[in-house]
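Lay summary. Proteins are chains of building blocks that fold into shapes, and those shapes determine what they do. In this project we predict the shape from the chain. Here is one chain we studied, written as its sequence of building blocks.
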Amino acid sequence: MDLYLNHQPKIDTSRVKFRVMEVVYFEDKTNYLCNFKVNMKEKRINQLFDTTGNMSARITKDFKIVSRTD
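And here is the predicted shape, written in a compact code that computers can read:
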């Protein structure tokens, strides 16, 4: 998930960084249903914003498709 979040083409990774702090997952037949606790740091002019939140995703077992669920 770190790779997925930190390498999105729409995100300026020189200003925004994500760090996955905790993962809880359930394995079903074709996917992993995951909940992540994620820390985000964003640099703005003379300021650093630091926040932590939760996100969910469905990830295929080959890790090629990540679908955010909320």
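What the prediction tells us: The two ends are 15 Å apart (CA to CA).
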